[in-house]
Each structure stands twice: as C-alpha cells, then as structure tokens.
Amino acid sequence: MKSDKKIRVHFKSNHANPDSFPPTIEGENVFAMTKERFDKAITNYPDLIHKIEPIFDWDLDNFYESMKTAEVLVCWDFPTENLSEIAPNLKWIHIIGAGVEHLCPMDWVPENVSVVNNRGVHSAKAGEFGLMSVLMLHTHIPEIVRNQQSNHWESLYSSPIAGKTLLVIGVGNIGYAAAQKCKLLGMNVIGVSRHGKDLDDIDQMVTQDELDEVLPLADYIFMSTPNTKETYNLLDKRRQSLMKPGVGIINVGRAATMDYDALVDNLNSGHIKAAIIDVFDPEPLPSDSKLWTTPNLMVMPHISADDGDTYIPLTLDLVMMNMRRYIAHEGLNNLVNPELGY
User: Fold this and answer.
1) How far apart are the C-alpha atoms of 4 and 121, rounded to whole Å?
2) Please, what is the Cα angle at 195 between 319 and 238, to 5 degrees?
3) Which residues, 6 or more positions from 132, have their beta carbon under 8 angstroms from its beta carbon?
4) pTM of the shown model
C-alpha cells in the first residue's frame, strides 16, 4: 500500500425503519454515518484527512459498484455472499454494533479480511443503565409503578444496597462497566465469563461451567452476553429454578440468552421478584406480547447502551484509531473471532 494512495472507505447506513435496526429519533437516523459527521470526526485526526476517500451510501443504493474498489467497509449489515468477488480489495470490515450474530455463521469472511466491532463504545452509557436498573430493582420501582397504575398505595421499603450480591453474566465491556459502578455501592460482585480470569472490582470470577454454583447466591443478575452457541438459552427454565427466591433480573445482552416464557412464569409465581428487560426478538416488541402485561416486568425499548448524541462520534473515533493502525501495518483493535462469533 503506497503512502500517497487514498484508502477508500465505504460507509453504509440504513434508512430509518421503525420495524428494524436502526431506530429513529425525531425523524433523524441515529446511526447514520453522514459526510457531516465524518468531517467533524476527522478534524481530530489531521494526519488522516488526506489519506481517506470516504463514500457515504444508504442501504444498497451504490453498494456493489463502490465495493469494487473499497478497502474498508463500515456498516451494520451487508450482503455476505461471494464477498471476495464483490469486494476484491476489501481488507477490513467495521461493524457498528457489539453483537455480530446477525452475520453468523461467519464462514463467509475471506482469509485476508479482518472484522472488528464496536466494543467499548457502549460502556459508559450501559454501565449507568446497569447501575440504575439494579437500584430500581432494589428499591421496588417495578412494583411501585404497577401499584400506581392500579391506584394502589403501598409503602415498599428498602435498606441500603451494600452487601447485596450482583451476578454479572457476561463480563465484557458492558458487564464490567456495570459491575464497577455497582461495586462502588459496596455490593458483592460475582462475574461469569468464558475465561473466568480475575478482574479488578469483581470479588469472584468464574467460568460459564460454574454458573449453576453461583446462581443461587445472587440477589440481582445482570445479563450482558452476546448470542452465541455457548450462550443460547443460557438462563433456561432449569437455571431459573436455581435462583434465589425474590431475585431481580436485568437483560441488556440478547433475548435468545434467556427463556422469556420461563421468566414470565417465574414472575407470575413470585419466584423472580422483578425484571428489567431491554432486548427482545422481534423488536419492536409486538403489541400482543404477554411481556407487556407481566407483573413487575419493565419493558425497555432497547435503550440501555445506545444514545443519539455520542454513538456515531465514538464509532468514528474507533474507525479513525484503527485507520492509523492499518496504515502503520499494526493489528486492528476490537477484532472479532469468526469461530466464536464475537
């Protein structure tokens, strides 16, 4: 790659669609990568201004023509079939979300193409959401909201949260951010990850094989796992039966990692006291879903990690930082392992 050659980067955005990703806020496509946003982002990287040739596209309007010469693709989704023929110069794909299960199995990835994701962009916002959700469960907010809707006055008291146990299933960027914030409140934090390696601010780390042993210890459970073969239906009916009576559950990962039918049954019986759920399949949640009316279940419209102000600027920062590494022939950050699916 010659130093005077501009690197063609294809930014593919999707037209706003209320029935699919990405969402719309007041008519604006929150996840659109526009020339205006790119121009603003690149001012912080003056060394790249004359090294990138950006192409901004919507859906598949100019996708096939542009990909004949593009080296980098930044997008959420795209046609993967015959990619090596469609994009013979492609070297690197940046997926603008943390999860890539919509592109799995990733047997379509050409040998010379690297795939990266948006890990880390969500952390600050998702950590705050996790802290808020744990405190909402601890202070009985789902029950209080339900009581208000039925004009029922009942004083539901709560003690300080210090000493309660939070189980974080999936200690990636999001899970770790939530764990750190909850630890500041004096909670006992147990983390579950694929590797089970010790982490600062987490009292105990275990592997997924040890999940059954730690489930009964949790007062609150924070789910933040991607949807993979290893995590599919991870909190199934059997595992939910292992939980401490009165436990509170939060899921910001993927709907497929939890048995929602069992969750509804356990909420109705009181075995699970309350739940805050941010991920569903399909989304938006159909109006006739029983999840809307399940007692003490709060439906969040997929808002835990994304925001309309900083998501794309932070995404473009990741792209720019990796562009520097790409030009310097260094390994890219946030590489996705096609075999693991994250």
Assistant:
1) 31
2) 110
3) none
4) 0.89
Taking only the tens place, the pLDDT of each residue in 87-107 is 999 999 999 998 899 999 999
Q: What is the CA 224 to chain-centroid distance, rounded? A: 7
Read off the amino acid at residue 175: G
CA–CA dist 168, 192 (Å, integer): 6
Distance CA 293, CA 250 (A): 17
Cβ neighbours of residue 256 closer than 8 Å, sequence gap 6 or more:
227, 231, 232, 233, 281
Using CA atoms, how far apart are residues 46 and 39, in angstroms rounded to an integer?
Answer: 11
Return the HEC string of 78-129: CCCCCHHHHCCCCCEEEECCCCCHHHCCCCCCCCCCEEECCCCCCHHHHHHH
Q: What are phi and psi of 320, to 5 degrees?
A: -65, -45
pLDDT digits (tens, 9 = 90+) for 298-309: 999 999 998 878
Q: Which of 268, 270, 265, 242 is nearest to 167 (CA)?
A: 242
